[in-house]
Amino acid sequence: MPRLKFSGSRLFVLDTNVLLHDPTSIFRFAEHNVYLPMVVLEELDNGKKGMSEVARNARQVSRYFDQLMESASEDEINKGLPLGNSPYLPKEERTDGLLFFQTSEIDASNFPTGLATSKVDNTIVSIAHTLQRDNKDKLVTLISKDINLRIKAKILGVHAEDYFNDQVLDDLESLFTGQSVLPNDFWESHDKEMKSWKEEGRTFYRISGPLVKHWVVNQFVYMEDGSEFSAIVRETNGDEATIELAKDHSSQANDVWGVTARNIEQSFALNLLMDPEIDFVTLQGPAGTGKTLLALAAALEQTIESKLYNEIIVTRVTVPVGEDIGFLPGTEEEKMNPWMGAFTDNLEVLSPSQSNDDWGRQATQDILQKWLKVRSLNFMRGRTFINKFVIIDEAQNLTPKQMKTLITRAGPGTKVVCLGNVAQIDTPYLTETSSGISYVVDHFKNWKYGGHIKLIRGERSRLADFASENL
Predict the structure, then answer these.
(1) PIN domain: from which residue to which, for each copy (predicted)?
(2) d(CA 31, CA 9)
(3) Please, how many CA atoms are within 13 Å of residue 150, restricted to the half-sphere of its CB?
(4) Fewer beta carbons under 10 A from the terminal one: N or C of the chain?
(5) pLDDT given at position 109
(6) Neighbouring-strand partners of residue 140
C-alpha cells in the first residue's frame, strides 16, 4: 500500500458492522476523515440481499456512496470525497471530513505475525496498522462493534473504539426514571405562593421554587415521609409548575381490570396507562416488576369496558434466548403465538374465572381472539393503527430505527406502550445505552403527551426476586 497522507488530526477506519448498524455513521465523525477498506465494501455487497434490517442498511450505505461519488473523478476519489456534500443530511449536520477508499492492494508483509491473511477482520486490523505506521503524526482509530476485533487491534498496538454516536447517554444511571422523591422540607421552601383548585374531581396545585425548574412534564413527584403525597407534573414554566394529585391505584376502589398496584411505581405506571391524554408510555424495569400485567390490564379495561380503543395490538421482536427452534407453521398470529407466552400467562391471571376449568380457559381464548391481535414486527411498514392500544414488548431488543418505524404506525386515537428490560438485551451490537427503549425514553422525556416510569421492585415471587438479586 502506498504511503497515504491525510489532512486533519484523526483518521477513522470503519468496520462493516458499524455501517450495517448505522448507515449514516460515515457522516458522524465531524471534521475528521473516514477510511473504508475494500473488504468492507465486499461485505456490504454480500449483505445487501434480503428484506432484513441489516440488508436495508447495506443498501442504504451503498446509496450514500453512490451519491458522494456521482460526479467525482478517479483523482478526486483518491484525494478523498467531501462528506459534507450529501443532500441526505440537514445543513446543520454537514461535516468537513473526507471519505477515503482503499485504492490499492495491501502489502502482505505488513501483517503482524500470527494473523491469518484470509480473514476479513485481520485484513481490517492490518490496514489500520499500516495506516498508523505511515501517518505517525495522526491518530488512526479502528471503529468496530465487534469486541473481539477491538481486543485484537489493541493487542497489536492499533487504537480501537466502539461506535458511540448512537448511544443516548454515557451512563445508564443517568437515564430518566420518570419519578423524583421530594425532600422532607419541600413545602417549607415551595408553598409561599401555592395555589390549588379542582376541576372535574381532579386536584391541581401551582407551585414555584428552586426544585421546580428540574421537573419535566408527566414526571411523578412524591414524599416518603408517610404523608402518601404523590403528584404528576402537568405543566412547567421556569421555576413554576402545575401538578395534579396522582390517583392511588393501590386502593381497591381504583383497581384496573381487577389489578391493584403493589408499590408506588406500579401506581404511577397505571396513572400513565389509564390517562387518555397520554399517547405514548414507556415502562422499563427488571423481570417480575409487572410491566406486562399492568399494560395488559389497562388495555383490557380501556378496550372492553371503556370502549376507548377498539382493539389491542401486541408485537415484539422475535430474538430467541437460546438456539432458534426453526420455522413455525401457520398464519401470522399462529407463528407469533409461541413468542407471546408472557401475554397468555397474564391473560390467565386477568381472565374473569380464576378456576382451571374448561370455561375459564375458553374465556381466556375468547378474549385473546376477539380483542387482542398479535402482529409480527416484519409486516409493520406501511400500516396505520387507528383507535388501537398498541403494546410493544421486549423493546430493549429494538434498534432506534426499528422503534421509529413502529411508533410512526400510530394513527388518530392510538396509544403506544413500550415495555422493556435493558438488562436482557439479546440483539447483537445493541447495548443498554443504545437500545431502542433507552432512545425513546430520552427523546420523549419532555413531551406533554408522553410518559415514562422505571419499575424497580419485583412483585412476581420471592423466588424470582431472590434470583434477580443473587444470580
Answers:
(1) 10-151
(2) 9
(3) 13
(4) C
(5) 63
(6) 11
Give Cα separations from 445 to 35, 126, 186, 438 (angstroms): 36, 44, 24, 11
Chunked mean pLDDT (size 10), the chain, 471 residues: 57 92 85 91 89 85 89 86 68 74 73 68 89 86 92 91 76 83 86 86 91 93 88 92 94 91 95 96 90 92 92 74 48 56 70 57 65 73 87 88 88 95 82 88 92 87 78 75
Burial label, 107 (beta-carbon count in 10 A; 0-12, 13-18, 19+) = exposed
Report the distance separating Cα 240 and Cα 276, nearest Å.
Answer: 25
Radius of gyration of the chain (CA): 26
CB half-sphere exposure, 108, CA atoms < 13 A:
4
> Reduced to 3 states, what is the DSSP secondary structure of residue 238?
coil
Tallying the residues shown for the chain, one arrives at 471
The C-alpha cell at 68 is: 458522494
* DSSP alpha helix (H) spans, 316-380: 332-336, 341-350, 358-370
Cβ pair 250, 267 in contact under 8 A: yes
Pull the grid cell for residue 29: 465523525
3-class DSSP assignment, residue 458: coil
Backbone phi, psi, residue 389, to 5°: -105, 105
CB-based contacts of 381, cutoff 8 Å, min separation 6: 405
| Non-local CB neighbours of 65 within 8 Å, separated by 6+ positions | none
- Which domains are assigned to the chain? 10-161 (3.40.50.1010), 172-245 (no CATH), 255-470 (3.40.50.300)
Helix (H, G, I), strand (E, B) or coil at 357: coil
Helix axes 341-350 and 358-370, enclosed angle (nearest 10): 120
Residues 6+ apart with CB under 8 A from 84: 94, 95, 96, 97
Strand order in the sheet with 139-143: 81-82, 98-101, 33-36, 10-14, 139-143, 159-161
Nearest CA to 373 out of 340, 398, 395 is that of 340
State how far Cα 469 lies from the chain centre. Answer: 24
Please give the Cα distance from 223 to 225 (Å, whole number).
6
**Among candidates 238, 250, 236, 369, which has minimal Cα distance to 314?**
369
DSSP three-state, residue 84: helix
Question: Which H helix or E strand runs over 372?
Answer: strand 372-374
Contacts of residue 173, Cβ cutoff 8 Å, sequence gap at least 6:
none
